[in-house]
Amino acid sequence: MNTPAPIRAQSCANAPVLKERGQREVFCGLTGIIWLHRKMQDAFFLVVGSRTCAHLLQSAAGVMIFAEPRFGTAILEETDLAGMADANEELDREVARLLARRPDIKQLFLVGSCPSEVIKLDLARAAERLTVQHAPHVRVLNYSGSGIETTFTQGEDACLAAMVPVLRNSTARELVLVGALPDVVEDQAISLLRAMGIGPIRVLPSARAENAPEIGEHTVFACFQPFLGETTAALERRGAQRIRAPFPFGEEGTTLWLRAIADEFGVDDATFARVTDAPRARARKAIENASTALHGKSVFFMPDSQLEIPLARFLTRECGMEAIEIGAPYIHRDLVGPDLDMIPEGPQISEGQDVDLQLDRVRAARPDLTVCGLGLANPLEAEGLSTKWAIELVFTPVHFYEQAGDLAGLFSRPLRRRAILEQGAAR
Amino acid sequence: MKLTVWTYEGPPHVGAMRVATAMRGLHYVLHAPQGDTYADLLFTMIERRDHRPPVSYTTFEGRDLGADTAGIFRDTCRAAYDRFLPQAMIVGASCTAELIQDDPGGLAETMGLPIPVIPLELPSYQRKENFGTDETFFQIVKALAKPMPRSAEVSVNLLGPLALGFRHRDDIEEIKHLLAQMGIAVNVVAPFGATPEDIARLGAAHANILMYPEHAEAAARHLERVCGQPYTKTVPIGVGATHDFVNELAQICGIEPKIDTARLRQPWWSKSVDSTYLTGKRVFLFGDATHVQAAARIARDEMGFEVVGLGCYNREFARPIRALAKEFGLEALISDDYLAVEQAIEEAAPEMILGTQMERHIGKRLGIPCAVISAPVHVQDFPARYSPQMGWEGANVIFDTWIHPLVMGLEEHLLTMFREDFEFHDDAGASHHGGKAVAPSAPAPEVQERGLETGSDVMVWLACAEKELKKIPFFVRGKAKRNTEKFAAERGVTEISVDTLYEAKAHYAR
């Protein structure tokens, strides 16, 4: 390994964390349904909630996905709340109707929302009841995507965590990769690991229920994403062991992530080098090309997806940027610790949000690039600050070597665009 | 409980946000959990607004529920006042906060803020977005507008334009043009661009122009009652409606109507021979009631289309839309169920849909061209160019917008002549569009299975007739199929042959 060992004293590992609470400009966990329902091709996500939930799902991605969605909202109405209708009976009826219309559905997720939680609708019991009713064809699970319990990507975490207890037992020593990534990226990860002789490799979530991984004490797993805290805990309760590593963003993160798995499976240095040298070199070159506009520029992360810390590591170490503030909705130290260790000290680390106070800090610092949600991007642009929409980082293939240049490109494009328009105006 | 995939309207507090965001100097404190801030992006992204909506969310979490959510509301209210120093505030709850019953209105009232604080009661589990816009604007007007002396000159208020409205920005300009021609002054435009202080001046106008009944009818009625201001009932979308509007307004204001149609091109564009091919195009109308009502008149009287179906998603206006449908010999579709609308369109088999962004997707799926006439909107409904719907320029814009999705006149004939051409076939769609409309896959078996049912008789298309039907170009095939089935049903014919097809063609020939 030629990556220098991190020196903790000069990193963000022990940096004080600014914790704020107030207005949070973030999505709730329901938003994860937008990508989960495309990933799990025999699953349907039924939100039990309000018109607001349905409206969010329609608006969240900034576009309406009309390609036969495998999600919907059972909208609570006055009669459900006033006790005039038995909400459980109503739910059973809607589920029966839905499953009759969609015989291809094998997994049904009842997704809790703010209203369903406030009225204490017991979706866990409903899921058990419905599983019995629709067995063996459909398994019904439940999780919460509510804003009072989850922030944005925590919805995926809650969904995967809900799947863990029903995964079959296994005694085999198998590698499970955890997180819903675009197929192209997932395939790249698997083929790199296979080329090192590691296998069998399974993925949670699988595209189809029948290919779901099996879990046991000999299972080892690695997370693709830094927000999978609950899922990690659920897998550990089943006896599986987590491989600790920085997350696979950029050349360095990908190498360290692969190396940690390779070490676990006793892959020798020569094999590792044979598999990774060429894509590493490609990644370095791609990052170099795409990050020219980023060198020496400052970046400010508003909290959004929990990807902030690993991405700040990538931008500061591989793209030559300087981080002013790295805000995350939650900081799972156990998961992002390795990334945090590698970020040189300097930036303010913050957890939670009071958006008005944080915007005051953005305006005072005037960063070259602010990574923020869609609600804030145009207003900040109008103040002359360049922004990168955070949601694109979740919707775009950005992990692993072959996407490292694209990842740098996502951050440099707003800066390049501004420069082009300014030059054009000056001509 | 009702299963919903796509919705035409958001919850009522989003309606309140549309009013607040349109105004200046007003702040909305919304008791809501984390995540409800998603609504900000509707304004900043779809409408490309360069400011955050003036909304502070309390952002309570699960652990706050047993504790002091009311305290969080008060703190948010105080912080919002101190930071934004608004002239007035509206306060209310989103769907979740409605359940915890903290009474934002009552809480805010006890805080003694030195500005008017207007409480909103928007029942999230009964009502929807358009109720939210209408009710919010009404409450603001009720709280702030009082009777006052009339302006010396004849002046009017423009009521209803707001944030995320379909072409509201440009409709305001167009109405101002009409008023300038008549020598009528504009007192206040609201909510769009108005401050609470402007709302307090509403009473100075001689009359109100109710631009969008969906968003301002309650306010207009209130002002009629309290300030004695009459309001216009005609929405000036289309040539005929604009003439009627000018006459109505002149009568209300006691002046002579003045009409200058120098910029109006639509009537000649519609009369010119190139437009002959528009005659009898079968169109399906769906959207909010106001725009559908206007579109129906334009479609029939100014474009020469045949309206084969119409409806609206806002149930509040079911009655006038049902009456309108009856006038057209149709049954109105009053529904906010996207799948029901899709089914109705599929059954009516129109040659064009005039609808919302939702119908645009239905059109894509069914291979039917669609033009957008109403909210709900998407980013492309906020063009950089001037593009009103109202007034003379609006009529011009509508003509262009509606014919754009269609296959053009001579191209229709070429398609009919060379229908088997490998490049110029059904699935290719109109040649002036880059994208290709996708015709429904495998329509052939559908023809046989889904015949028209009349009593116990089920109609069947014979194979040869079905083959002949497929030779008819895609943009008129729906009409041919439907006319043939109707013709056959009326005569008790259960098997459709090639002869039936051509007898029907002769029967309906015009």
Estimated structural class of chain A: alpha/beta
Portion in beta strands of chain B: 5-15%
Largest interface: A-B, 65 and 57 residues
How large, in whole angstroms, is the Cα Rg of chain B?
26 Å
Q: Helicity range of the residues of chain A?
A: 40-55%
CATH names the topology of the largest domain in chain B as Rossmann fold
Largest sheet of chain A: 6 strands, parallel
Kindly report the oligomeric state of this protein: heterodimer
Number of β-strand runs of chain B? 17
Low-confidence stretches of chain B: 435-456
Q: What general form of chain A does the structure show?
A: globular
Overall mean pLDDT of chain B = 90
* Low-pLDDT regions of chain A: none
Give the CATH architecture of the largest domain in chain A. Answer: 3-Layer(aba) Sandwich
- What is the assigned CATH homologous superfamily of the largest domain in chain A? Nitrogenase molybdenum iron protein domain
Q: The CATH topology of the largest domain in chain A is what?
A: Rossmann fold
| Helix run count of chain A | 17
Radius of gyration of chain A: 22 Å
Q: How large a portion of the residues of chain A is in β-strands, by DSSP E? A: 15-25%
Strand segment tally of chain A: 14
